[in-house]
Amino acid sequence: MLAELLARHEETARARLDGHSYDYIAGGGAEEISVREAAAAWRRIRLRPRVLRDVTEVDTSCEVAGIRVSAPVLVAPTAFHAIAHPDGEVETARGVAAAGGLMIVATRSNADLDAVVAALGSPWLFQVYVMRDRDITASLVERAARLGARALVLTGDAPVLSRRRHGHILPPLTEDQYLGNLRPLLKPGTRISWDTAQDPSITFETIGWLRELSGLPVYVKGVLRGDDAAACLDAGAAGVVVSNHGGRQLDRAVAAAVALPGVVAAVGGRGEVLVDGGIRSGIDILIALAMGARAVLVGRPVSWALASDGAAGVQQLLDALRDDLREAMALAGARAIADVDRSLVASG
Ligand SMILES: Cc1cc2nc3c(=O)[nH]c(=O)nc-3n(C[C@H](O)[C@H](O)[C@H](O)COP(=O)(O)O)c2cc1C
Description:
It is built from 13 helices and 10 strands. By secondary structure, the chain is α/β, with parallel strands linked by helices.
């Protein structure tokens, strides 16, 4: 059972990790109200399944960002995988590759991008934090484009980082570990904690800057409002990720499940809408797709799988999510992703 697998991964991870690292992954902003609400918001929505649809064969494959995927489930960008596994993002990538999954590699990766890309051996996306030093940001984005990233995912909801459990912002890492992927891009005189911190001055114009710099489609992650989604597309974005950053930024930001319909309506088919936050089952994925998302992202479950069982855990998790979606689709009378439409949702 998927729920048991998720619980086992998290329990094992909790036993293995030091308390600070565990809290960094599990926690969120302020009182963690948004963290607690995320999964519950998906569970409040009800379905209206179809019957007599011959679901002998159910196909979960589809296209996201122009990439054919075996299921619409992406690995969310999460920083600092070295806290969960000594090989960091390289180990995650091994698991993703084994499952035939699609990973959004984070700016704040501990492992060097070269090694992560080699371990993936398949298409990938790159998450961008625009740092105060735009030259370092530009070098990083150009490097990602050179190494074959198929799209950029600009995180828009973290102009500053929120303070988390025990007043921490970052997990326990040395400066060298913190830099990770950024190390080859530093210049003499770089003031690490200032220059590589997120630039709070980013605007919708940043979308065009990234597009020109990389020649890649840009998705904006962290969008919770229809007007913002429309503005992102007007500024040249290929799509948006409806997300409250797993409840890790502004606490009491609305749950993704609640924000999704408004964003889908505002986008009106002009771009792709992805969604994340509290996705823990095939039924959650089915509901997200029925509400108009093209795919979902999964964050913490991947971190727990990585800390618990390394690449094998990540593979097992992604396979289990795909199988769970297949079962949910069969029970809802959907043979293919194209059959998962708004009429399946009974309320919400
Ligand atoms: C440990 C951790 C680190 C994260 N780091 C980033 C990051 O560097 N950039 C980003 O855009 N989102 C980051 N996120 C947010 C995830 O991409 C995603 O939005 C969130 O985890 C989804 O919620 P879920 O964990 O309930 O699946 C992070 C999340 C976690 C748990």
